[in-house]
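Predict structure. Chain length: 274.
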Amino acid sequence: MQAEPQVLHLRGAEVNRVHHAYGTNGIITELDIAMAPAQSWVDCVVAFADFMALAKFAIAVARCDGIAKRLCSAVDSAAAANFKPLQEVLRPGESVGLFLIAAQSMSSFEEMLAAHGGRVARRLREAEVEAQAATPAFEFTWNHTTLHALKLDRSITYLQSRFPGPDFLPLIAGMRARYGEELAMHLELIRVDGEIACAGLPLVRFTTEARLRAIIADFEAQGITVFDPHTYILEDGGMKQTDPAQLAFKRQADPLGLLNPGKMRGWNEAQPAA
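Prediction complete.
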């Protein structure tokens, strides 16, 4: 972002200078991504009468090395009620698990599902998803869950959090009990540095800014990390601190501060007062 624009090439760990900087210090124009071995994925929607039983199952699947998977999501019944394309395969009040499971792991997956008291609501191979023009399972996960809710109710918002482990269940159960209908739990199981982590993206019924901040403060008091989606300041969202490498890269790639002005605290506070 200069009078004579430059194209910079970043390799390996250098990409962290712009990764998750949200356009505050650079614009990514081309990206090389490493490939993984191809799998024949089965799109699985499972249903449970009890959300905590579903959460326990999703965590078990995530931790099971014998089941190859690409997606492990658990959505409370209040949030799952927003999934209009799935209502024909769900029963009233059911919580929903959304999984992508390798075809060779399906027998083990279904055996574990039965042991945990769940049922298969929909099971489609990749070709069947396309042939039936079905909405894929992943289109109901992560922030798609929030978007489905917003289509029906604009008063809904969400949090993005991470539950401390390895025993996630007591804290998940406690937060559900604490907030009742004000909060609909939504979990995503991920692998971080070889360990299973539990991300929470619960739907929250918004009332006031003060109430939202109180809920965030309560999550943090319970040891749950909150990556605040209700701020446009980079450091106030997920990082909670200035990343020196990202700040240094902004000085190099955007010396005039033209990219997303006012949204990078480390840059703003280094500027002279007006």
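Summary: Residues 51-63 form the longest helix (13 residues).
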